[in-house]
Amino acid sequence: MTIFSVYIINKAGSLIYHYDAPNSGRPAVEKTFSYPLELVLKVFDEKVTVAFGERDGIKVGHAVLGINGIPAEGRFLRDKREILEVLASEKNYPINIKFGRPPLSINERIMLASMLHSLFAIGSQLSPEPHSSGIRTMETDTFKLHCHQTMTGVKFVVITDPKQGHVDAILKKMYEAYADFALKNPFYSLDMPIRAELFDNSLQSVIEQADKYGISNI
Amino acid sequence: MSIKIDHEQLLFHFQVNIATFALLFSEIVQYCQNRVHTVPELQNKLSELGQSVGSHMLDVIFLREKGYKREVKLLNMLIFIKSSFWKIVFGKEADKLEQANDDDRTYYIIEKEPLVNKFISVPKDKGSLNCAAFTAGILEAVLNGANFPAKVTVHWHKGTTFMIKFDESVIARDKMVDSR
């Protein structure tokens, strides 16, 4: 709940582990529309997204997740009809469309991780203070991103609620879990994606502990 | 004239950080894995390495714990292994020692979470590999060295179970000792 996701990036900039909290607040907005549709929709990145016409909680960038209860897969519905065609013909109205932020695919996550890696490098160069090591936190009004970079170049990135406290302790515990269950595992090769059950379990317990103690402390 | 050494202090001062041991053991497993092609072969190789450890430890521990007396009775030997030996090697006693219901040649030592497996997550493609085969090798060497010939294998049962199968001669000899 207060921790939204965890990303671990290796020293070359590729994603070796990611975790998303199950109910990390991606609410879907479902509304009934009548012809003509006031939103302007465009196909972007194989998904039908809102390009113009923000209203009622439906923001630019939200994708069509479903029509009349049938889930959407890319540009088509599950029953193989093309979404834009369905929305263009008047006989389908009134129509019930569900909008929301589309879930990230694994490729998108890998791209985000590499972008973060480059941003950290640029951040350490741009800093007015000499001997800067990189970006520590990034704050917006809906989330806060914390990063801990280890001496070997591995970055632990945690995205949390802006009010979450003691994230340094959380990051340290995750580093310990990595040192224990990934580095001492004979079946793990360095800089590869982490696939160890004990590591998943221990990360889960760190996150649960953080959630249990809530916003004020760990 | 004899030199009295404070055994308790000596034993408890020789402690190794678990992280150090875990990293060394992880290297041992990787070393073995590079030289074999199948999972049973890997377990065998780990067991062999454990046997050299066990044969070295046997004399030292017996000398320190039991003075100069040898164990001749089977049950006493097993109890000694489960409690003192395990405590010296791993820092705690083994969880359970059981005898098989139908077979008086087979005994089981059960441990929920063996120390050597503490940081190891076995991937799915390695099937039923249990790195506690190393510990099974230690046990086998200790029993064979103390003149209780046996075979020790490791299984995933109630955590980790070491199945000890003694030779017929051991059981027969034990019965004779008891009946005297």
From TrEMBL, chain A:
Record-linked Pfam families: Sybindin (PF04099)
A Gene Ontology biological process term: endoplasmic reticulum to Golgi vesicle-mediated transport
Record's subcellular location: Endoplasmic reticulum; Golgi apparatus, cis-Golgi network; Golgi apparatus
Origin superkingdom: Eukaryota
Record keywords, A-Z: Endoplasmic reticulum, ER-Golgi transport, Golgi apparatus, Transport
Entry GO terms, CC: endoplasmic reticulum; Golgi apparatus; TRAPP complex
SMART domains: Sybindin
CDD domains: TRAPPC4_synbindin
InterPro entries: Longin-like_dom_sf, TRAPPC
Gene3D superfamilies (alphabetical): 3.30.450.70
Main location group: endoplasmic reticulum
Subunit relationships: Part of the multisubunit transport protein particle (TRAPP) complex. Component of the multisubunit TRAPP (transport protein particle) complex, which includes at least TRAPPC2, TRAPPC2L, TRAPPC3, TRAPPC3L, TRAPPC4, TRAPPC5, TRAPPC8, TRAPPC9, TRAPPC10, TRAPPC11 and TRAPPC12. Interacts with SDC2.
Function, as annotated: Core component of the TRAPP complexes which has a function of guanine nucleotide exchange factor activity for Rab1 GTPase. Plays a role in vesicular transport from endoplasmic reticulum to Golgi and autophagy. May play a role in dendrite postsynaptic membrane trafficking.
Family: Belongs to the TRAPP small subunits family. TRAPPC4 subfamily.
Matches recorded under PANTHER family: TRAFFICKING PROTEIN PARTICLE COMPLEX SUBUNIT (PTHR23249), TRAFFICKING PROTEIN PARTICLE COMPLEX SUBUNIT 4 (PTHR23249:SF15)
Protein name (database record): Trafficking protein particle complex subunit
Organism in which the protein naturally occurs: Elysia marginata
From TrEMBL, chain B:
Record-linked SUPFAM superfamilies: Ligand-binding domain in the NO signalling and Golgi transport (SSF111126)
CC annotations in GO: endoplasmic reticulum; TRAPPI protein complex; TRAPPII protein complex; TRAPPIII protein complex
Keyword Endoplasmic reticulum: yes
Keyword set, alphabetical order: Endoplasmic reticulum, ER-Golgi transport, Golgi apparatus, Transport
Primary location class: endoplasmic reticulum
Function statement: May play a role in vesicular transport from endoplasmic reticulum to Golgi.
Subunit field text: Part of the multisubunit TRAPP (transport protein particle) complex.
Family label: Belongs to the TRAPP small subunits family. BET3 subfamily.
Descriptive protein name: Trafficking protein particle complex subunit 5
Species of the source: Elysia marginata
